[in-house]
Amino acid sequence: MAKRISRRIWRKLAHILVLGTFTILLAFPFYWMLITSFKQNVDLYTMENNPFRFNAKPTLDHLKFLFTETRFVRWLGNTAFVGIVVVAITLLLAVPAAYSLARLSGRWGERLGIGIFLTYLVPPTLLFIPLSRVVAGLGLQDSLWALVLVYPSFTVPFSIWLLMGFFKSIPRELEDAAMVDGLTRFGAFIKLVIPISVSGILTVVIFTFTLVTQEFVYALTFISSESNQMIGTGIPIFLVRGDVYYWGALMAACLIASLPIAFLYNLFLDRFIAGFTVGAVK
Amino acid sequence: MAIARTKIKSIGAAQSPLLGAAMFSPAVLYILLLVAGPFLLAVFYAFSDARIGNAEMHFVGLENFRSILQSPSFRVAIRNSFIFTICSQIVVLVGAHILAISLENTFRGRGVIRFLILLPWVAPIALGAIGWKWILDSIYSVITWVLVAAHIYKPFSAPMWLGEPRLAITSVLLVHSWRMLPFATVILLAGRTAIPKDIPEAAAVDGAGFWSTEFQIIVPMMRPIMSVAVLFGLIFTFTDMTVVYILTAGGPFDSTQTLPSLAFALGIQGSDLAAGAAISLFLVPLLVIIAYFMLRVAHRAEVT
Predict the structure, then answer these.
(1) Range of the domain at B272
(2) pLDDT at A22 > cutoff 70
(3) Global model pTM greater than 0.95
């Protein structure tokens, strides 16, 4: 009996140890952002100081600097703007497409769906060079509209894929019944299918928005001026003046921009993962 | 009335191909214009001498590929791309397996732990990478401070983590692993919870211990989902340029350059569109192979 209890304790200890180690390794950079944000420069830039504690009084100077002397707020606004417009475009393109593919008879809907999903695997790092010329040709260099134009190319494929799964789970009989009651197929789609798919559509909204906030390559390639940056590019490029790093403000900016995105993404993560693993979980 | 009803029903039940096409063609058209079109343009550029700021363009055959293959920084880039991708996926697969086991059962605080563990994946990678850049700073690195405090290095003699080729490569590799570990963990966790509980229990009744249950029963059952995690991990790491660009910008002396970051350095920063396009085309073979395996995983699931 005693042996069994001690074995259980050992297992519990091992569990805590493993979990603790991984949590610290994975979350450490964000903890480091937090502590750096509130440290005075004398504290940060003295090599002898123990970096794990405050050697001088905590300060809000970096936050003040970030919000008053940099374009950080503007970048947040740009990101939100592009995010919202791209979400709207993505919904307009993906919702009808996913519905019609989910309802296509035979294997063709599925095949076209997989084909569209595969385009999600074509990475920005393969397309950014030709797209930079397309953007220039359209006169959209250094404009947020360039991002609005290009971002749906990676949000639409995955959204169609996610929504197809949702629409397939709606029984056809429901729509047939609605059409018997006098609705057209399109009417049934608008008045019946969309309202019951709200949770699926919301998933796509969050997914699209977080993808937009995480994108880096296109924003880096198409946008050049300081006031048109997205958060992902503005922070690393424009919070560094010459070779001078404003680490306090940089870390505060990273943390403030990361947390809401991480929180939103986290809420819906299981649904995105279901989209990635369709077919492989049985 | 009854007749009218059946009539409407037959109309409704009949497929309406026109409406169907009208609903999906805008999306397909958009994807063709913004994915297939630029891809063809990239191929076209790769065989030309296109430069930014020069309207003229000539067909040069395989000239770009010839000069790329002779350039030492290209060879370093392709080597690094494979090192980063393969090594980080090994680290990720082992780590995610352990982590998925320890997250499988519910315990108090699991939600908070899950959120913390997921941060590297759910936060924008550009921002996470800046955090690492500060942690690996050449002077004020916390890692250096710990090593000095532990008397492993004397003050001022600790290495510069991002300033020496080998260390910089290791750093980039570890940041990639850090980034993909949560993603793989969540996927493997989904796979584990899908295994019926009575299977490992029956194995335990038959006297199988933890390790043999794990490796002889659970791992084989999880093969399809593990391949999903690995295939996505391979793609995301192989095609990523954010981590390298932020941590080292390819340096020191191009030693951490990858295919995407070199394509950016030459094609955009160096205005040599043709060379950049040719380099990025080297991503395609691996992408095709991965897509093939993904289709096989999907197909097998469809059949069973």
Answers:
(1) 70-303
(2) yes
(3) no
For the segment A214-240, what is each residue's pLDDT rounded down to a tens digit?
A: 999 999 999 999 999 999 999 999 888
How far does CA A46 lie from the centroid of its chain? Answer: 36
On the question of pLDDT at B92 being above 80, the answer is yes
Which of A:233-252 have CB within 8 Å of B?
A: 233, 235-236, 245, 247, 250-251
For residues A83 and A209, the answer to whether their CB atoms sit within 8 Å is: yes
Please tell me whether the peptide bond between B252 and the residue prior to it is cis, using omega within 30 degrees of 0: yes
Which ipTM value was assigned to this complex?
0.89
Residue B124 in contact with partner chain A when CB distance is under 8 A? yes
Instruction: Map A110-162 to HEC letters.
Output: HHHHHHHHHHCCCCHHHHHHHHHHHHHHCCCCCCHHHHHHHCHHHHHHHHHHH
Contact B271, B51 (CB under 8 A): yes
**pLDDT(B5) > 70:** no
CA distance, residue B90 to nearest chain A CA (Å): 16
Q: How far apart are alpha carbons A155 and A116 in whole angstroms?
A: 11
What CATH number has the domain bearing residue B202?
1.10.3720.10
The verdict on a CB contact (< 8 Å) between A121 and B284 is no
Set out the domains of chain A in order of their start, with CATH numbers: 77-223+260-276 (1.10.3720.10)
The per-residue pLDDT of chain A, averaged, comes to 89
Do B268 and A132 make contact, defined as CB atoms within 8 angstroms?
A: yes
φ/ψ of residue B252, rounded to 5: -70, 135
Q: Are B184 and B117 within 8 A, CB to CB?
A: no
What total of structural domains would you count in chain B? 1
